[in-house]
Amino acid sequence: MCAETDIHEECGVFGVIAPDVIDVASISYYGLYALQHRGQESCGIVVNDDGVFASYKDLGLVSEVFTDDRLSRLPKGTMAVGHTRYGTTGGTNRNNCQPIEVNHQKGRMALAHNGNLSNAAELRNDLELSGAIFHTTSDTETIAYIITKERLKAPSIEEALSRAMDTLDGAYSLVLMSPQKLICARDPYGFRPLCFGKREDGMFVVASESCAIKAVGAQVIRDVEPGEILVFSKNGIVSRKEHCHSKEKKLCIFEYIYFARPDSVIDGISVHAARLNAGKILAQTHPAKADIVIGVPDSGLDAALGFSRESGIPYGIGLIKNKYIGRTFIAPGDRLDKVKIKLSAIEEAVKGKRVVLIDDSIVRGTTSGRIVKLLREAGAKEIHMRISSPPFLHPCYYGTDIDSENHLIASRYTVSEICSRIGADSLGYLPVEGLEKLVGNCKFCSACFDGKYPTAIPEDVRKDRFERRLSEKRK
Q1: 252 belongs to the catalytic site
Q2: What is this structure's pTM?
């Protein structure tokens, strides 16, 4: 659980290609289930049965959308593409569900996308002026349009994708399916993760995270390189690297802090180990005299363990998350504190004790304050909050839902003022310079913390997704 419910990552992508006709829909289901943490608004699967595409997409969690009956209606095939979505651009409606399917003069295509284009508005405007009609508000449709335009002139779908990458700027990890090929690509910066693996039966799998590859019984081969295009077909695998090394690698550092599952390995670095390092650094830079260290489930737990090991303060379970609350949970009015429905404090663990509370981030401060209050009510004597990321100071344009400085508490208040506002006895953030220690030599993007953007900042810099969602809910 993120400290603030407003921080999300756009989505997870999954693809499978098998040597024989099998139940690729069920395999995709398990892969998407393993990627559910990356997106909980909608999901979809497109199956390729000898060049004929069949699909189902809808709003909801993977387990809600794909019941046994719904899965059984999808045909068997040799390929499939899947997607689980949290939209950072585009509203929450069925039209924005992915994968996007396109019929064009040279065939069909299904496309799943993770990330955000920094030049999406410019590209979409040019396409609309040329006569393009959009059916969604997602920038994924912009990518699909550009690939399709190039495909009408290019000798192959992979060449069309390569040409399209000359135009796209920003973050995109793609899984694309044509009648004969499964293709994946990662933007030259490598903002978002993408990897692939293989099962003993010869089936290849592509996914946003390694945990999804393992979930379907495959072994991880490696990460897709930034800028690389991989083409899977009955003839084997072809790697195209004409876009590799054209940009400096900038993997989103928040993948390690919050987004990815702890059991995933991204670009050779264990997410679990990175979070342990974050806790260790916090214990060194912001020590506290306390009796117990606890983490906010789920992403604060590993950092709490790292803090405990480094400080020598015992680690304990002080907060329990209600695992049965999904996106369909609706509170009947505002009579009850929603944090109390999602989290509960273990009084026996914290009563009368000085507590170090570890979480991954503070955005607005509202939820953090409620968690502190929850522990106070359970009898905690002192609460020393430690955050395993630096303060959020700037918007993100690459797939993380951090938008306006107006909503970022660290942009308006000092650390001591934030500490007072959330009701903690002390507050400490991971230092920006400590980020390198999390991931070693891995090059990363930390623009939301330091304002150093790898790409040009979009012109619609002040658009506010938070206010848009509030207005949508009121309709």
Answers
A1: no
A2: 0.90
